[in-house]
Amino acid sequence: MIIVPLGKLVLQEVEADAPDFAGQVLKNIEKSLPKLIAPIINEYLDDEVTRFLGRKPHQRRRHCRAQESVGECSKCHTRNRQKFRRNGHYQRSLATGYGQVRIAVPQLECECGGNVRYRLKTIGKGQRIWVDVQTFVQQKTAAGQSYRQIKASLDERLQSSVGLRTLNRQVLPLGQQAAFSEQWQAGEAPPVVRVDGIWLTVMVETNDRQTDQAGRLRPLKQARRLAILAAQGVWPHSGKTKLIAWMRAEGEDEASWRTFLEKLWESGLTPENGLKLLISDGGSGFHAAYQKVYWMIPRQRCVFHKLQNLARHLTFAEDQTRQARKELTTDFLRSASAIWQAEDKTQAMERYQAFCAQWQTAQPQAVQTLQRDFEATLAFYDVIEQAKREGQVWPPHLLRTTSRLERMFREFRRRFRQAVLFHSLAGAQAATAQLASRFS
């Protein structure tokens, strides 16, 4: 236990008839917090040194056991902590969420006169921004605020100027990884997984160089479209959904999807661990990769994307009014969507055949689009029947489409559009990791 003596704290008095009495009290508390934070941090720093040396202040070195430590003398390079002793403190400013504070960082020296190098856990070497401010910056960037907006907020709170590069350094560590995949054991994997991709724009370096106005040779960058492939796990018996994996890729081609699916397999997302269904759109890249990695798992073709394709292939008469075209589209899609509202697969096939007979003459292109890979849109019926035999009831609306994954992608698109483009891969990956953490 660490006991921190805070002493007496003088608070400014608030007039009893002040119009915003509670607000004035809150401001006084906020002004007093830095005076409380510094002693607490100092006590934790001194406690770290006590644990590192294995003895309390003023305790003789010969009374503690000699052993190797993680610290090292800069002069004789010994790691024997029995030869180390305290050597006062030096003052440093630290930006916290409560304001700027002055802390006393303990110093150590060796009996040979050299300085002892060791790593503190409370604050890092040269750290001027504490973890709460770093978390604040990461949360605000994840919410879509620009660095300039965050800087304005921090400048007011800290009563100092925070550099934009300093803010950028708080976020970039999140972008060290270009992929994430949760690990699964037997019986833990989600029974259903939705997969899809989203695009963003990143500035990447080329092999060319150019001289800027200051005469410096700079690498020439160009904008490139890259994809983020994502997988969303679904537990139909409870309705739970969460993002379980993502990966930056060159596109949505077969090679990219195959790499992503292989990562999912290596993470334990296998039929032996509980996977029963994959849901995707009609992209050819995913389908080709799926046949090589997850060919043994049923694949559900997203019904929503199928309906979108049907709407795109409708044909209209040249003299047909806009309202008439809208009514035709509504009637056509309502009739088509009724196919997948059937109670079972047999009824769905009957509705499908009746629909084709009704619209074949008037809309041959749209009917041909429906017939293409239609069987894949009915895969969820077989999975529901299998779940029934195991005593579970799985709602069909969780198995037919990737719509909930698309809703999650709305937040990604909003963030990507605000950024317009990212100036580095690390920045793009950091933004993706922040957004993904909200849905994981």
Protein traits:
6-stranded mixed β-sheet, 10 strands, two-stranded antiparallel sheet, 440 residues, elongated
Give a short overview:
By secondary structure, the protein is α+β, with helices and mostly antiparallel strands. It has 3 domains: 1-123, no CATH class; 129-175; 180-438, no CATH class. It has helices at residues 21-53, 131-142, 147-158, 164-171, 254-266, 284-293, 303-312, 322-337, 345-359, 364-371, 379-389, 403-419, 425-438, and strands at residues 72-73, 84-96, 99-110, 116-117, 179-181, 192-211, 217-235, 240-249, 277-280, 299-301.
Tell me about the largest β-sheet: 6 strands, mixed
**Low-confidence blocks of residues:** none
- Radius of gyration equals 31 Å
> What is the number of strand segments?
10
**Strand coverage percent:** 15-25%
The rough form would be described as elongated
Number of helices: 13
Assign a percent range to the helix content: 40-55%
Strand order of the largest sheet: 5-8-7-6-9-10
Structural class: alpha+beta
Mean pLDDT equals 89
In total, how many domains does the architecture comprise? Answer: 3
H-E order: HEEEEHHHEEEEHEHEHHHHHHH
Query: End-to-end span in angstroms?
Result: 35 Å
Please tell me about this protein's structure.
This protein is an alpha+beta fold and 440 residues long. The protein folds into 3 domains: 1-123, no CATH class; 129-175; 180-438, no CATH class. It has 13 helices and 10 strands. It has helices at 21-53, 131-142, 147-158, 164-171, 254-266, 284-293, 303-312, 322-337, 345-359, 364-371, 379-389, 403-419, 425-438, and strands at 72-73, 84-96, 99-110, 116-117, 179-181, 192-211, 217-235, 240-249, 277-280, 299-301. The strands form 3 sheets. The protein has a 6-stranded mixed β-sheet, with helices on both faces. Strands 1-4 form a two-stranded antiparallel sheet. Helix 7 packs antiparallel against helix 8. The longest helix is centred in the first third of the chain and has 33 residues, at 21-53. The radius of gyration is 31 Å and the shape is elongated. The model has no long low-confidence stretch (mean pLDDT 89).
